[in-house]
Design goal:
Number of helices: 11
Shape: globular
Distance between the termini: 52 Å
Bound molecules: flavin-adenine dinucleotide
Strand content: 25-35%
CATH class of the domain at 5-47 and 147-214 and 317-388: Alpha Beta
Number of strands: 20
Helix content: 25-40%
CATH topology of the domain at 5-47 and 147-214 and 317-388: FAD/NAD(P)-binding domain
Length: 411
């Protein structure tokens, strides 16, 4: 009988998360095998071409603020040469008084310097972004095509093995190794360490080893609108990206003088339908009007010409799940990236490779990545024992009963 092929490190899932981690491990001299059930990289949510990245600046959720600031610098270090740095404008809430001084103090408290986040009056914003609204300007905010990025991360490398069209359905512990088994019960591989980056499918994979994670789907549709050159809308299209309730990219002028404008996205809790919905385009038209403060703009002038539909994977508390599964040594999880695939993949690459290679955490600590942030992302936060002893690198939680956090705050 031939034994299944053995690998030191196997990554399951070739989306932006799995690909970024595999790439980091390769750069650190490791051999990596990456497996995906699809026939090519970026077939799932990471087929997305229009993802944006900026640090979160809202009030509340202090850990999210710190995490996104650290993750943004990691993403910028990784992709800053290749992403489109058009800047992102965050309009102030219209139902609240605009107090620039208070906002400046808030941004400084987040250690966001002027080159990263700057308060703009409506007239300044009109000049820079083409939108006459008060708000915060993030000149280094950018967009990234997740599909081309994922493919580039997995370009041929002597230490990288890619296996397409292989669906893993469960794991089994055999001695010191993990066995990866498909739905025909074939033992495909054995591995010392498995990084599970399979988005929603992570839930069923982990249930095979009695670990239950509170993951659920949130469908999202982006609309690509075409705007005729004679439309009144042309004077209201943004020159930069805008992120508020929804987001949009800068409108792109086409050869015939019309504009192509990406606006999104819908947020359909619990839905997994990948077909485009007319209702989602309508929702995005409303978001478009609010983003550029043009409530009188006609719907019919925003003609749907294309769309992207993806299924986000989210956890109950809306933070990603990134870390070693201390209850099952050798298993590492990266899932629930929600709407921040760029930031969390960059952060996961550093964190997971440090855990897989059992580095000391001095580098991560220097970047501001402290023990409480590690605990906020760790899978162990969902298990009963986490209440008694907050998860940390050395803690072995013994109970895998999930605790569903209450009242998710969506973005
Ligand atoms: C409408 C919308 C807008 C968004 N906007 C932004 C944005 O502006 N900025 C941003 O940063 N992010 C954004 N996102 C989020 C981003 O797209 C995701 O967070 C990211 O793509 C998730 O990457 P992933 O690698 O975790 O998952 P995926 O890309 O889904 O990859 C998972 C992979 O696992 C594979 N797989 C699954 N099960 C198995 C199995 N059993 N065996 C083997 N392989 C398996 C799948 O085939 C897939 O390739 C948006 C998402 C949507 C839907």
């Amino acid at each position: 009988m031939t034994l299944p092929q053995h690998h030191d490190i196997v990554v399951i899932g070739a989306g932006i998360a799995g690909a970024t981690i595999a790439n980091e491990l390769l750069e650190r001299g490791q051999k990596v095998c990456i497996i995906d059930s699809a026939n090519s990289p970026a077939s799932g949510c990471s087929s997305h071409a229009y993802a944006i990245a900026h640090p979160h600046i809202g009030r509340g959720s202090p850990r999210l603020l710190r995490l996104t600031r650290i993750a943004f610098s990691m993403a910028e270090a990784r992709w800053g040469q290749t992403w489109k740095q058009h800047g992102i404008f965050l309009p102030a809430k219209k139902d609240k008084p605009f107090n620039p001084q208070e906002l400046i103090t808030h941004l400084h408290s987040l250690e966001l310097d002027d080159d990263l986040a700057r308060v703009l009056s409506a007239s300044e914003a009109n000049q820079i972004c083409g939108i006459a609204q008060n708000g915060v300007w993030m000149p280094r905010g950018a967009s990234l095509n997740l599909s081309t990025t994922t493919n580039a991360l997995l370009r041929p490398h002597p230490n990288l093995q890619c296996l397409w069209g292989k669906r893993i359905s469960r794991f089994e512990k055999r001695g010191h190794h993990w066995m990866l088994i498909d739905d025909q019960n074939h033992q495909l591989f054995s591995a010392n360490k498995i990084v599970v980056a399979a988005a929603l499918a992570t839930k069923s994979l982990l249930s095979s080893i009695d670990i239950r994670l509170p993951l659920r789907p949130v469908r999202g549709q982006l609309s690509i609108f075409s705007v005729a050159k004679e439309s009144l809308w042309v004077n209201h299209l943004p020159k930069t990206a805008i992120s508020g309730d929804g987001y949009c990219l800068p409108a792109e002028r086409q050869n015939d003088g019309s504009y192509r404008w990406m606006v999104g996205s819908s947020f359909d809790e619990g839905e997994s339908d990948l077909n485009p919905w007319v209702a989602s385009d309508e929702f995005n038209r409303e978001q478009a009007k609010a983003l550029v403060n043009y409530s009188e703009g006609g719907d019919e002038a925003l003609v749907s010409s294309d769309s992207f539909v993806g299924i986000r994977c989210v956890a109950g508390d809306r933070l990603p799940i990134i870390g070693a599964l201390t209850q099952r040594p050798g298993i590492f999880i990266v899932t629930a990236l929600g709407s921040r695939g760029i930031l969390w993949s960059a952060l996961a690459a550093k964190l997971i490779s440090a855990q897989v290679l059992q580095d000391d955490f001095a580098l991560l600590a220097r970047l501001g990545f402290t023990e409480d942030l590690l605990a906020a992302l760790a899978p162990a936060r969902f298990f009963a024992s986490a209440l008694a002893s907050p998860p940390s690198l050395g803690v072995l939680a013994s109970n895998s009963k999930p605790i569903l956090p209450s009242s998710p705050s969506a973005k």
